[in-house]
Amino acid sequence: MALRHRRQHFLPGFGLTLGYTVLYLSLLVLFPVAVLGFKALSLDASVYLNVLTDPRTLAAFKLTFGAAFAGAFLNLVFGFVVAWTLVRYPFPGRRVVDALVDLPFALPTAVSGIALTTLFARTGLVGRILEPLGIQIAFAPAGVVVALTFIGLPFAVRTLQPAIEDLDPEYEEAALSLGASRLRIFISVIFPSLKPAMLTGFALSLARALGEYGSVVFISGNMPLRTEIISLLIMGKLEQFDYAGATALATLTLLLSFLILLAINIVQWRFSHKARQAD
Amino acid sequence: MSIEVQNISKSFGRFKALRDVSLRVDSGELVALLGPSGSGKTTLLRIIAGLDAPDPGPNARVLLSDEDVADRSAGSRRVGFVFQHYALFRHMTVFENIAFGMRVRPRAERPDKAAIREKVTQLLRLIQLENLGSRYPSQLSGGQRQRVALARALAIEPRVLLLDEPFGALDARVRQDLRKWLRRLHEEIHVTSVFVTHDQEEALELANRVVVMNEGRIEQIGTPDEVFHQPTTEFVMKFLGNVNLFHGRVESGKAVFGPWRIQASGGASKEGAPARLFVRPHDLDILRESDGSPVAPAVVRRIQSAGPHVKVELEMQTGETLLVELTHERHKILQPEVGEQVLVSLRNVRIFTEDYAI
User: Fold this and answer.
1) What is the three-class DSSP state of A80?
2) pTM (2 decimals)?
3) Using CB atoms, which residue from B51, B80, B136 is nearest to A173?
4) Is 90 exceeded by the pLDDT of residue A81?
5) Is A98 a member of any domain?
6) Is B297 within the bounds of a domain?
7) Which residue, among B52, B95, B104, would best test binding to A if mutated, counting the most A CBs under 10 Å from its CB?
8) Contact check, Cβ <8 Å, B74/A279
9) Within an 8 Å CB–CB cutoff, is residue A173 touching chain B?
10) Which residue range(s) make up the domain with B198?
11) Predicted pLDDT of residue A49
12) Per-residue pLDDT at A1 exceeds 50
């Protein structure tokens, strides 16, 4: 019975590849998370309560998630502009600019952090101009946003680029000849076609920002209650041998991140379902 | 409403897509721009629509209803444009696609919801897709999509309708049906229309007038009859249907091609000038015995009788191959066989020498 109902696969090796996939994911993702999970379950509820009521933790949560969202949003807007320019307009040096986009991928995050700090500190090239105007970037929450935007940019650009390439200019021309304004064309024709890619770019950029550590610790100044991010707090707890506290904090962060990404994925499924209907 | 272009040129880098083209399309006409790919026909259409700008020139002008539209954007020209691959908005239903042009108008000119609904319903009826308004383009067949694209273009009540290879992406059968349908539609609504095609049959069947284009120039403008029966250039002759070519010379005022000596009416050509004779396959006949008219001997090489005509391939003594089309009746009477020696005679021919056509 079971055999008869098995679907025929025309590509051989389904069993092998599935087995490999499960093993691979287990070793790389599931196993470390499971260890954390076991450790987290063995903890007393009071540990969580302590962590959750600590104003330092709450401030760090607010800053980490707030800055990550802000950075992802900035990347969505400006990443779109960059991707659009790279795809649609041939200009001299386009390849160089295209390669530049990947730089935040390749640069060690500590290097980016130090470079950004140097730039935005009171004596730095940009900081010198901004600080007299009352805008403090380095050693302020804004610095965290800058760092998270920097490291997330390639994710937004690289997911939007192929989507824009697939967008035939014919659609815009059709809308144009029907009398639509430029803004209207963007809202009604371009944006709906790019929505899934935009969401993916946003989610990737956000996920990357939530896990960032290296660059932020340099530019933020790590002031408790003001510019401390969760990863740093976890590091601090580990250094003080407060493994239970670190675990609780890590579990909460993981849970929250997972829920956010899951929500984005659900919206994504909705989009792709609609897109499939429309395809 | 009329369309007129004057002295239009267009280059893309070093490639000259259009070279000094002028054309007038009168109100209510259905005109075909016919030519091979790269002949500039689509570029001309896009320039009329305002999707491309012509090269600046002192006399270059584009007029719609005798009004210069050089400074007007594509959106304000009120031109209905139908794309080869439909360019329907994928995330919008058929209804929303058709309504798009009305919904994007500035608030002051925008019809109210009920008026839009009525107009769309009316257009859906016109394209015979009344019940499919809520479908997405992906749920339609190619022919249906093309009709929706047409309805979307008509919804803005365009002054002229421009169609870029409207049937290019469809299979032969659907193409036939849609052609007939478009012809009837044009008779009904009489909007001035220009369509681009590389299919000569389509152009001859559908258009009131055919503009034959080649390498960025207009070769000939005329009714389908004129361009088919009285082509003024070799290119037009070759492009519109199959043709046999003979090379010959001018001798004492006559063009001589083997056994055939044809009076050159102009008679102006130089003695010994090269001449080329074109004859359509259906203007050749096969004989068993000479009927007094000049004939040339040939051998039957191949016979293909499936189709509206019987196609016979002959080999001349010079080694050249001739294609002859016989009616099925004629074929029944003659019953030629492969390998048989026969005689070929000519009916209508066109001769082109260096400086004139007969």
Assistant:
1) helix
2) 0.79
3) B51
4) yes
5) yes
6) yes
7) B104
8) no
9) yes
10) 3-239
11) 87
12) no
What was the pLDDT predicted at A2? 46
Q: Tell me, what's the pLDDT at A7?
A: 61
Q: Do A180 and B104 touch (CB under 8 A)?
A: yes
Terminal CA-CA length for chain A: 36
B175 plus B296 within the same structural domain = no
Predicted local distance difference test score (pLDDT) of residue B211: 95
* Total domains present in chain A: 2
**B169 touches A at CB < 8 Å:** no
Looking at residue B121, what is its pLDDT?
94
Q: How many domains does chain B have?
A: 2
A188/B75 Cβ within 8 A: no
Distance from CA of B97 to the nearest CA of A (A): 10
Closest partner CB to A178 (pick from B91, B104, B137): B104
- Residue B97 sits in the same domain as residue B156: yes
What are the chain B neighbours of A178 within 8 Å (beta carbons)?
Answer: 75, 100-101, 104, 152-153, 155-156
- A159 contacts A201 by C-beta, under 8 angstroms: yes
Look at A278 and B137 and tell me if their CB atoms are within 8 Å: yes
Q: Is residue B358 part of a domain?
A: no
Interface contact A171, partner B, CB < 8 A? yes
CATH number at residue B280: 2.40.50.140
Q: Provide, rounded to the nearest whole percent, the portion of chain A with pLDDT above 70.
A: 94
- Dist. CA B220–CA B34, nearest whole Å: 10
The contacts found for B289-297 with CB under 8 angstroms, 24 or more apart, are: B289/B343, B290/B343, B291/B345, B293/B345, B294/B259, B294/B260, B294/B261, B294/B345, B294/B346, B295/B259, B295/B343, B295/B344, B295/B345, B296/B258, B296/B259, B296/B260, B296/B343, B296/B344, B297/B341, B297/B342, B297/B343, B297/B344
Judgement on whether residues A130 and A114 belong to the same structural domain of the protein: yes
User: Are B51 and A177 inside 8 Å of each other by CB?
Assistant: yes
- A215 in the same domain as A81: yes
Chains A, B: CB pairs < 8 Å: 77
Low-confidence ranges of chain B (pLDDT < 50): none
Residues A29 and A50 both lie in one domain = no
pLDDT score of B269:
64
Query: For residue B300, how many other CB atoms are within 10 A of its CB?
Result: 18
Residue A38 has pLDDT above 70, yes or no: yes
B87 to A278: CB separation less than 8 angstroms, yes or no? no
